[in-house]
Specification:
Number of domains: 2
Keywords: Hydrolase
Strand order of the largest sheet: 6-5-4-15-16
CATH architecture of the largest domain: 4-Layer Sandwich
CATH superfamily of the largest domain: Metallo-dependent phosphatases
Order of helices and strands: EHHEEEHEHEHHHEEHEEEHEEEEE
Oligomer: single chain
Largest sheet: 5 strands, mixed
GO molecular function, one term: endopolyphosphatase activity
Radius of gyration: 20 Å
CATH topology of the largest domain: Purple Acid Phosphatase, chain A, domain 2
Protein name: Bis(5'-nucleosyl)-tetraphosphatase, symmetrical (Ap4A hydrolase) (Diadenosine 5',5'''-P1,P4-tetraphosphate pyrophosphohydrolase) (Diadenosine tetraphosphatase)
Pfam families: Metallophos (PF00149)
Number of helices: 9
Strand content: 15-25%
CATH class of the largest domain: Alpha Beta
Structural class: alpha/beta
Distance between the termini: 46 Å
């Protein structure tokens, strides 16, 4: 459906309102408001908005960015706010999640839908990892808390088969394509154990690690002897991770932690990393981080151990 520059934008927005049953992410509406002429491509629902032939909604930002989002935990409204605040453009930007898209929050299906519509990349977090095991094999959940199990049961009923296939395909580690970076960069949900080769890191640690104990082993506890794994990680691989809401935003020499407790009423945070980034992550400044306030607390901070 083609709309030229003379088309009344108000009429277009009225049409969008009438189609609100599609629960279109706010970021799309934001792009329409900024476009003088809009093409709606309606393949499998409203997916893309593009300007007239030869134009671009992303002029001035030709290289594009990796928009790497911390733990969402089913907070779809906050995710939409974040993408709008980031001025995200699907043509040039790439969306990446550090895991725990689901679990604890109110809208896991909507979060997965947004991720799929944006062709996002992601790694499994402990909540995806545990839930997939539970669904696939009937394996017992390692977390005994009733609220978490109730959240999983609701998610199992809520997601469709295509959503499950997307989640099943998520890796535990993602190597970022940053050709100009002087050091390799990976995304994992929880962390890496110092001194262990990359190809020998245990899946359990990749989705549960928080600290290093006095003997140098990985631990999911906050108060293990040697402290946060990220402080102990000496590279050379640089790591972007989540999982550790209690410690919040972490900026270490070779590791960046992005879990800022969105589901607990705090913030949802993203790292905005240019695709042509050519420096160590230690060169990142505050302009590369973006946070939006949570609408409310959907879970208790006492649950942050999970």
């Amino acid at each position: 459906m083609r709309h030229d520059a003379a088309m009344d934008l108000a009429a277009l927005m009225s049409t969008m309102k009438a189609m609100s049953r599609l629960t279109l992410p706010k970021v799309f509406v934001s792009e329409i408001r900024k476009a003088s002429s809009v093409t709606l491509l309606t393949c499998c629902g409203l997916r893309h908005f593009a300007g007239p032939a030869g134009s671009s909604l992303t002029s001035g930002r030709t290289a594009g960015r990796l928009v790497i989002v911390g733990d969402v935990h089913g907070c779809s409204a906050e995710l939409e706010d974040l993408l709008e605040a980031a001025d995200f453009h699907k043509r040039s930007d790439e969306l990446i999640f550090v895991g725990d898209l689901i679990g604890k929050g109110p809208s896991p299906r909507e979060v997965v839908r947004i991720a799929r519509e944006f062709s996002a990349k992601a790694v499994q977090g402990n909540h995806e990892y545990n839930l997939l095991r539970w669904r696939r094999r009937g394996a017992p959940l390692p977390d005994p808390e009733k609220k978490i199990k109730e959240s999983y049961a609701a998610t199992v009923k809520d997601l469709e088969e295509d959503d499950w296939q997307w989640l099943e395909a998520l890796p535990l580690m993602l190597h970022l394509d940053l050709p100009k970076s002087p050091l390799p960069v990976v995304v994992v949900h929880a962390g890496l154990v110092p001194g262990v080769p990359m190809d020998q890191q245990k899946p359990y640690d990749l989705v549960h690690l928080r600290s290093i104990d006095a003997e140098g082993h990985g631990s999911k506890l906050f108060d293990a002897g040697a402290g946060a794994w990220a402080k102990n990680w000496q590279g050379p691989t640089q790591v972007i991770f989540g999982h550790d809401a209690r410690r919040g935003l972490q900026k270490e020499a070779f590791a960046i932690g992005l879990d800022t407790g969105a589901v607990y009423g705090d913030k949802l945070t993203a790292l905005l990393l240019p695709k042509n980034w050519d420096k160590p992550l230690t060169s990142l400044d505050n302009s590369h981080f973006l946070s939006v306030k949570s609408h409310r607390a959907y879970a208790s901070k006492s649950d942050s151990k999970a």
